[in-house]
């Protein structure tokens, strides 16, 4: 197994910041049904709260069924996975997400303890693979796509 270099760690750190910003901006945008699937490939796997989805079309269908979102990323961490150059990345993200218009958008009949429209704590883990078919992104960073993605509400 190839040891990680300081450059691998620097690439991972920059790529994680870049990816996290782009991904959640796309996810929260009105055009997410078209934008978010671009992060995936036909062989990508996603698990959303225990429900499996495979490939770009399934991600697009999930995005189309979901109400608008607003993510607040509190933290993320990235670890380069040795074995490829540039390395694949394991990224873990935690934060909160509000679906719909927030509590003020709920009908008056919504129970006070309902999670509808309330911020919910989530954790999301991604495995990103370098995309050799696309030129490097801004700042010379490799272009990555999501190989695997699992999202879970934790609160």
UniProtKB/TrEMBL annotation:
Write down the InterPro entries for this protein, in alphabetical order. NTF2, NTF2-like_dom_sf, NTF2_dom, Nuclear_transport_factor_2_euk
Q: Which PROSITE patterns match?
A: NTF2_DOMAIN (PS50177)
Name of this chain's protein = NTF2 domain-containing protein
Q: Name one GO biological process term.
A: nucleocytoplasmic transport
Q: Which organism is it from?
A: Hericium alpestre
The residue ranges of the NTF2 domain are: 15-153
Under SUPFAM superfamilies, the record lists: NTF2-like
């Amino acid at each position: 197994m190839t040891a990680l270099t300081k450059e691998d760690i620097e690439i991972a750190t920059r790529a994680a910041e870049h990816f996290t910003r782009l991904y959640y901006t796309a996810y929260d945008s009105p055009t997410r049904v078209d934008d978010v699937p671009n992060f995936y490939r036909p062989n990508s796997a996603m698990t959303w709260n225990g429900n499996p989805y495979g490939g770009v079309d399934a991600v697009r269908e999930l995005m189309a069924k979901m109400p608008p979102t607003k993510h607040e990323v509190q933290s993320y961490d990235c670890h380069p996975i040795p074995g490829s150059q540039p390395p694949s990345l394991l990224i873990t993200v935690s934060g909160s997400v509000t679906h719909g218009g927030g509590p003020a958008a709920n009908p008056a009949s919504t129970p006070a303890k309902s999670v509808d429209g309330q911020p919910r704590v989530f954790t999301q883990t991604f495995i990103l693979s370098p995309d050799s078919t696309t030129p490097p992104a801004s700042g010379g960073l490799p272009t990555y796509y999501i190989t695997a993605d699992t999202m879970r509400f934790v609160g």
